[in-house]
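Form P-L/3: holo structure prediction, ligand zinc ion.
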Amino acid sequence: MWKSFFLVFSFIFVYSCHLFSQSPVRIPVTVGENTFYIETYEKTGEGIAYVHVHENETASLAAGKHIWNQFGGKLITLVHSFDGTKNRNVTFTWKKTVYKFDPNRIYTPDRTVLKNNISVVKGRGEVDEFIISEVEKLAKAIWSEIDDFSYIIALHNNKNEPGMLVRKGWFSKKYEPESFSIISYIKKNDESSDSNLSCEDIYINPRINNSEFFIVTERRDFSLLYRKRYTVVLQNNQPVDDGSLSVFALKNGIRYVNSEAKMGRVKEQIEMLTLLLE
Ligand SMILES: [Zn+2]
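OUTPUT (holo model):
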């Protein structure tokens, strides 16, 4: 009787532990007057860190969780909106001023780059040393979750929209350039963009849409994806320091692959990540 009770109890305990391992550990980080969370999922398996920092890119998170569940490793996602919306940029308040930054433009030892990547949305405050340090705190907290991994896979989605005139206010229209895609890496009209200047090599499969591609920092990953005929960009050894994780990973000697797919394309992104890891 006691033996069977013990067995049932053990089963419930092990099963709950299994369920618990599927829920994230939430690490709070205070930035200004706000608290954000780095949610981390861990599972034995491959020594890979999956990084998701753009909250609104939900397809890449779903695809990343699927792959993490299959291959193991650690997955982290940044949670910074609590009003039911999901936003790319992080906003925070300090002394009645609202600041904004892109959470993939904060990983840099260069405080001038970091300062230029923080903007004032509302209020009279400035991007001073204190504000820079607050944002740097989040960058360090995210980095400390992944810096002991030798392989980082970043999860992103893009809009994949053509250039168009967008109405601004009642009377004016503004031309919004073509959104980020594999095309951003090509030198166009004799002009180089930051993406183009950071590009060492490129392979484009003409049958794959321009929104689905990889950005890698090592030649071996470029060659692997080229052999599998998947669109890929090799970032060069002297990329422009824009505060992005890809540049920071390269400087820290960590293998880095960014998977880019159009918003909403979960199935396609699972397929491309499977192709990368198989
Ligand atoms: Zn993104």
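COMMENT: The chain has a mean pLDDT of 92.
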